[in-house]
């Protein structure tokens, strides 16, 4: 019988009878207590969603305690499908996300106390995340809309904690593949629901909250449904799915078993179709960047190309005609190629132009610190009345990550963001090269795919602001774990060579 992970590596500094013998009894008693409580509560609970949370949640907590690496996978999966947000909004349940974060931090602290398992190489993460959080916190002092700033800062802080927990728990090379598959499993769930919803036209069914769809403008005066998934906005939904495409391609090319390649192809296929069904032009441009960089950065073999063709070619029949018409409006942005007058009449172009210009005006008026976190919307109408380009009278968002940072955080935030991204992306690139040199080709490929996925997110950031930061910070945490793992493998290899030389 396998010994639970929590009691595999006791701290030599503590006697075994002080640290180990009572843990199995503690877990057994906890399991009995929780199981008994569940048995008493479930018959009197009317909400099916709450029953599901109890039935699935208690085993998950127990597994997380005994095998912490599975707790990391639960966190990655539930974060990417927005499980807690869906349960809150559509099923009336309290948040499960914040308690689970606290539980994971408790597990990390427990393992540190019992066995001295202090996570390694986290100074860089604390410096980068702490610096960015501190920069955002300073804007609370001067933001004109304090409550909007406070809410956004709270969301940012929780997102950064997610990234930090990932770095703390993702310490071994063997975990990388598991984490990638947790992301692809999320893609399979979200993409399958969205693809089925669009192809069957069941837009009135929200599929437990994972199948939202909204009637929005497609082109000119034509309106139609755009798939929005668990997020509720088609553009942001496309953005988070684009990040999964290079990971799915890498696993399709490099998994060792037929079953896992089929699953990777499934994830790739439904993610690609869902991106199309969002009708997001920014999503398409980001997808083109991702595909181009992936093919150049990691050129596939002939069998891999054939696999891609098997997945993609059958999907072309499902591309709506209105999608190609919507994409044709991108040519209007190119002088001398498209219809220059179309930009003036296209609703979304007028709005986006106004939002970007106003963001730059805010930056010009507050170049050092900006107007404060999440205070762009509160100041939008004051600037819009002067510009006169946007007839809409509601508060708007900047619809550009970079304009958002400059408008709300000024040069201080812009410099901090560029520095943080340079350190993370360069570190991920170097660790990918190092893993390749050490002979860990699978892990190096996943590192390259993650780097390309982040590049796709940042490309989409040209057209979208950072409205859902958890996705971004989750991937930043995974990216920051790569250099730590590469360093550990390099040291282990040196130690192995030294031992061989001594013999």
Structure write-up:
- This protein has 503 residues and is mainly α.
- The chain folds into 3 domains: 5-118, no CATH class; 121-169 and 346-503, no CATH class; 188-342, no CATH class.
- 70% of the residues lie in helices and 3% in strands.
- It contains 21 helices and 2 strands.
- Strands 1-2 form a two-stranded antiparallel sheet.
- A hairpin with a 2-residue loop joins strand 1 and strand 2 (222-229).
- Helix 7 runs antiparallel to helix 8 (146-169), helix 9 (174-200) crosses helix 12 (258-277) and helix 20 runs antiparallel to helix 21 (469-502).
- The longest helix has 37 residues, at 401-437.
- The protein is globular, with a radius of gyration of 24 Å.
- Mean pLDDT is 85; it is low at 1-20.
Number of strands: 2
CA radius of gyration is 24 Å
Q: Strand fraction band?
A: under 5%
Largest sheet, spatial ordering of strands: 1-2
Averaged pLDDT: 85
Count of discrete structural domains: 3
Helical coverage, percent range:
55-70%
Per DSSP, the total helix count is 21
Distance, first to last CA: 35 Å
Quickly give the structural class: mainly alpha
Low-confidence stretches: 1-20
The profile of the biggest β sheet is:
2 strands, antiparallel
Reading the helices and strands in chain order gives HHHHHHHHHEEHHHHHHHHHHHH
| Overall morphology | globular
């Amino acid at each position: 019988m396998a010994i639970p992970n929590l009691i595999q590596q006791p701290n030599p500094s503590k006697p075994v009878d002080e640290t180990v013998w009572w843990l199995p009894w503690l877990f057994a008693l906890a399991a009995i207590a929780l199981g008994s409580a569940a048995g008493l509560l479930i018959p009197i609970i009317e909400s099916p969603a709450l029953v599901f949370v109890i039935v699935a949640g208690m085993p998950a907590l127990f597994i997380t305690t005994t095998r912490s690496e599975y707790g990391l996978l639960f966190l990655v999966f539930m974060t990417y499908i927005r499980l807690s947000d869906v349960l809150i909004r559509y099923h009336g349940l309290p948040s499960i996300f914040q308690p689970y974060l606290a539980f994971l931090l408790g597990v990390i602290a427990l393992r540190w106390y019992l066995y001295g398992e202090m996570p390694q190489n986290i100074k860089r993460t604390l410096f980068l995340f702490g610096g960015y959080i501190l920069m955002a916190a300073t804007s609370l002092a001067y933001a004109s809309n304090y409550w909007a700033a406070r809410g956004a800062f709270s969301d940012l802080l929780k997102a950064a904690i997610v990234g930090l927990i990932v770095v703390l728990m993702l310490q071994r090379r063997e975990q990388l593949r598991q984490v990638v598959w947790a992301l692809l499993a999320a893609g399979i769930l979200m993409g399958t629901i969205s693809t089925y919803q669009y192809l069957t036209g069941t837009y009135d069914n929200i599929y437990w909250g994972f199948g939202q769809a909204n009637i929005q403008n497609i082109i000119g005066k034509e309106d139609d449904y755009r798939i929005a998934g668990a997020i509720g906005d088609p553009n942001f939904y496309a953005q988070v799915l684009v990040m999964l495409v290079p990971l799915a391609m890498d696993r399709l090319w490099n998994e060792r078993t037929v079953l896992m390649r089929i699953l990777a192809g499934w994830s790739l296929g439904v993610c690609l179709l869902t991106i199309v069904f969002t009708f997001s032009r920014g999503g398409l441009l980001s997808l083109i960047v991702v595909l181009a960089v992936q093919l150049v950065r990691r050129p596939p073999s002939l069998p891999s190309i054939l696999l891609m063709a098997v997945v993609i070619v059958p999907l072309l029949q499902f591309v709506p005609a209105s999608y190609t018409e919507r994409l044709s409006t991108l040519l209007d942005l190119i002088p001398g190629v498209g219809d220059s007058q179309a930009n003036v009449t296209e609703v979304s172009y007028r709005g986006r132009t106004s939002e970007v210009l106003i963001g730059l005006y805010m930056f010009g008026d507050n170049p050092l610190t900006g107007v404060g976190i999440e205070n762009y919307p509160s100041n939008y109408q004051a600037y819009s009345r002067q510009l006169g380009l946007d007839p809409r009278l509601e508060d708007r968002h900047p619809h550009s990550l970079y304009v958002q940072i400059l408008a709300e955080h000024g040069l201080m935030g812009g410099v901090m963001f560029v520095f943080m991204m340079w350190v993370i992306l360069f570190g991920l690139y170097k660790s990918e090269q190092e893993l390749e040199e050490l002979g860990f080709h699978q892990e190096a490929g996943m590192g390259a795919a993650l780097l390309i996925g982040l590049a796709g997110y940042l490309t989409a950031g040209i057209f979208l602001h950072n409205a859902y930061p958890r996705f971004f910070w989750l991937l930043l945490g995974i990216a920051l774990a790569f250099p730590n793992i590469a360093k550990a493998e390099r040291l282990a290899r040196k130690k192995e060579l030294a031992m061989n030389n001594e013999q």
